[in-house]
Amino acid sequence: IRLENILYKPVPKHELLGDKDLSWLKKKDYRNLITREETLAWIKGLEEYDDSEYPVGFDTETTGLNANRNKKERLVGICMSYKFDAGVYIPIEQKDMENNEIPLDELLALLKPFIDRNSEKKKRLITHNGQFDYRVMKMFDIEINITDDTYVMLALLNMGKLRAENSLKGAMQHYFGIDVLELTEAFQKIDKATLN
Question: Taking CA atoms, which of 78, 84, 100, 145 is between 20 and 30 Å from 124?
């Protein structure tokens, strides 16, 4: 048993939702890709997707914010979406959930043709603060093909405002009136004193 696995516990659903309106989630198909079969099927769909009108959503989850600087940070998951109202999370090295069956090197080799800007099969990618995702993937010799970045768009929209909201969570609330949850809100830290 890893120590960090007992230091966090899932937040009960009624506490997690609190006063947040997440009714918009009922129409969505968000899921984790765990098995090889479902992952390969999703990647096949990505290969067939025509990105000429809409880019593919792309985000990385890591153990910290210094990716590709100190080489200590690890990639723990990738979020992607190529369909409206649907998206996937590919857990790679998560400590609080089941991880994808495909080894990291193989998984990245499967994704690389569609996310690397040097590939003939590359898809247009939309990110939020993509310079971070770029640094993360550069650790694996992948130069992601960012064509749109909502963080940059928000910075331009909010130019000259004293208290601009450029976070994705804040922007969703401000511009669309939508409450969202962070992964970190779904797990609460256990007080170490209660472990004794």
Answer: 100
